[in-house]
User: Fold these one by one.
Assistant:
Number 1:
Amino acid sequence: MLLLTGTVFTVGAVQKSPCANRAWVEHREGGYAHCYSDVTDLYEWEQLAGGRLPYLDACRPSPHPCDEYPVVSMYVMRAAAWVGGNHPDDFAGFYWTNVVLLGMCALATVWCLERLGARTILFAAAPTLLVYGAMNWDLIAVVLATVATYLFLRGRRTGAGVGLGLGTAAKVYPVLLLLPFAADDAGRKDLRGTIRMVAWFAVTWLVVNVPFAIAGGRSWTKTFRFNALRPPEPDTLWRAVTFDHWSMGTLWINILSFAIPLAATLLIWRVKERREPGFPRWTLAFPLLATFLLANKIWSPQYSLWLLPWFALTATSTIPFVAYQLAELLVFFERFEYFAQVNSHGSGDYRAFAVAVLLRAALLLWCVVVWVRRPTPRLTPVPEAGVPTGAVRPAEPSSLATG
């Protein structure tokens, strides 16, 4: 699985490499629409060619946002620029340095999934890993969330909390996993485990962020202000259901982006519990993340990577997964065709893109429905050193067992 993962990821990285140059970033020349990667553009937009420290050193005036990412992601970029970006034109060096790092994240994710006995091929061979693995830095949050899940299922609440804290300091979504993990603990009346996990999550996140919040002030808050003020993006249902004629205010959309997935997951929990009493509640992470993406006002292409480990851990059928992945490919092609038209002519025909987004949403909902209707698959974890094969750690009598 490591070899398959490395191959799929590398092919995707090579596919994007023609855009790793200044001509593409500044003039959209020297590449083609579908080789786009945020990694290359952000080398310039985040002003990483010199020694500027994100949040601590002011950004130069620019038409592009700067310091817009959380701390861990920003300082991974900063470190990669020091290693592979020695001068302003070294876009390729910066890109390939990040490719190596992100590839390592993908391999570490697969290692964790294999140790948990998941259907790892659903991550390793996923088309979304191919087209989005080198798109942005989301694989950092993905591996941290997966490590946290691995540690949670091994009964290590401190490590799970630290992993989720670091993951949330890279991208916000890992904080959502505290909810299904806490629900699983509640089912086993392990309140102390939840408290320890949440406490270590908070300590980790604060240790990473507070120094920059104090020293960087308004620069550190930019990622939160930027995302709060962003309108719905073309990749989302907010735009697709109205074919780009949405009218609701951003504040209400912000509220609904969180309220809808929480309410939907509570409903799904009740239905799943009736159909499969005693199912492992930590698996609610899958419908929670799926509905969060469907309801969110932002669905950047690489966000689809968040779901891959959860398909590997909880998918009950391959056919819905394959159909959903094919829809992701359709969105990939239609998205960059649309933005190529916008960049060339100032506008584009959004209809085909909207249809692709609607189809993707429908197939992801199908995946959730199938997950609810079918019994949770049984994991066959690799035993830890010193734990006999087939044994379950005393602290986790039901976490790895399924219905």
Note: Confidence is low (pLDDT under 50) at residues 387-403.
Number 2:
Amino acid sequence: MSALETLLAVLDRPFVCDELFDAVPDTIFFVKDAAGRYIAANQTLAERTGYARKEALVGLTADQVFPGELGRRIAAQDLAILNSARSLKGELELHLYPDGEEGWCLTWKEPLFDRTRSVVGLVGLSRDVRPANSAPDETAHLSAALRHAQDHPGALMKVSDLAARAKLSAFQFDQRIRAMFGLSAGQYLTRLRIDQASEKLRRTSNPISEIALDCGYADQTAFTRQFRKVVGLSPGQYRKAKA
């Protein structure tokens, strides 16, 4: 039994971090079951959706908590993650602010697995981001460009191509990415490819050479070199460590 498993075994109740995130007013946190129903959330999420207490969210789905199209979009996103077991990595999307107005946030979601590797829920957070010097339309174009990159991490994309999708210059695009993620645009694209590769190494038994090609690398050697540089382990070492 690992140190983490030992700790969890002696806790008096499940540790889901909602109380920790109650103290972070610019971030919403949640845990959902296999049907997309909230089983835990922080107080920030409750207040933004008109509930006095976070416990009132338990048992509800996103389309019951958020209004109209926003709720339907979040619920569909949840079901896609639960059905595919794929993570969501820093998607720029619309959310609600305390005044009831829509605003932009970065969202991360990870599927939760039982001991048989079946998906039993998801955990996620959304952090407020108000891009500097950008109008709403500009942010919408940026969001679409980032979604394209996230949906096609194995494609041989250039920063200039994504900047064009965002209707920005390459310099402006790079500045927006640095402000949101603390990475250059080039580093951001590399991170997307490495994240996809890491997921495939953890959750499939596909040959490393095949994973390298799927993630947009010309050969296994180039993939291994960049993976080791970013992660600190070779792909084979990473797979063994996560087994």
Note: The beta strands are 27-33, 38-41, 88-96, 102-113, 119-128.
